[in-house]
Write a structure and sequence with these properties.
The protein has four helices and no strands. By secondary structure, it is an all-alpha fold. It is globular and about 30 Å long.
Amino acid sequence: MQNLTMSDVDTVAALGVYRNLSEAQLSALAQAFSEQWAAKEPEDWTDIDLAMLGQIICGFNHSDILRVHPDAYK
């Protein structure tokens, strides 16, 4: 999972809707996303980013999720 290229938003969105990923897979996807989208911090995520991430957001740690600006959850 960590070797997937996350530069294509369609790939991220397709993985984000898949609900049968294990906790380890979600964590690996979240880590790959964080590394490949390093220029965009959780504070900068928008509602579009959160919709694209979908289930992948479950793989992020609690402190990263707390950094997401409340407006992004609209």
